[in-house]
Here is the input.
Amino acid sequence: MKRLNIALLHPYLDRIGWASQMMIHLAHTLEKKHTVSLYTLSYDSDIYSISSDIFVNSYSRNTLLKYCYLFLIAYRIRNADMIVIWNSPMQFIAWISKRIFFSNAKLIWWQHHIPWYHSEHTNIFLYGKRQLERFVIQDIDLLLASSQYLCKRIESIWNISAHTLYPYVDFELPSSLPERKKYVLFTYGRWVSGKNIDQVFQTYDALRPQISDLELWVGWEWNELEKYISKYKNNKNVKILWRLNSEQIISYGAQATVFLFPSQIDAFGMVVIEAQSLWLPIVCFDIHSSCELVQNGVNGYRVSSSEDFIDKVDMILNDEQLRDILSAWASKQALVFQKSYFESQSQKLLWL
Here is the structure.
């Protein structure tokens, strides 16, 4: 195979997020056989370590210079053989490279979620952005999506077919059921609006009177940290954790009893497949891609109400045989999301 020049475009590489993690993983996969360059508006080398060339905006505080930098990216990638795009505004930059700087690169857009501005109708700017995107997407050569649900959403919005490229879990699966504590609720995520963190604490508060030694471990970033720290500061059974690395996820997940995924907005739950990789049964709401990841009564439960969410967690906590069955099937589901499968699929799809 000819050695190609491949440009990867992502707006932000200065924060932990599974979409940016997948970009770094893809870079590592591709740079074995090709020349890879990364372009971004911000980068934190303490979070992501890469050997590929990386070009970073140095003018983030000056809006005009930032837009000039984006235009410079479009110019610099004009000679690439392939351009792989992540989040907005990078799809527009790739299009500028193709239409203004006459790039012959194959444009590939890997979608991890449908941008929020496709469901919000707040102002004329967003309306214009949606219309421009409908125009730009006609020049995209290949659309990838992180779930089957997202493929369907893409087709419903743009009337264009997409191919599923699942992300993968970046740690080794336990070979057998871990030694667990009996009553531990575990969850983590980037707790923004719609992630429904309140459901986690409602579940704990509802079950605590029945299970005196029930523990709750909550990790990663969120907007309401101070509120919950204040409320549970004297409760030794509630661990409010900060950002978790892979080693910490494995450590906490291997001890926990059930994983809570209360989000009502995610198009794909990376934390769900990480939890399944650690043999954890899942309780989540019956939305979006949860149908792909969680099968009722097999590896967890999908629910439609807050009350049912609490009831299913209670049932798992108090039925050891059920927990073992759900855990075993959770680990089987996780086999789909391994590095070897991701590498073979990405190589196959990028050259469609």
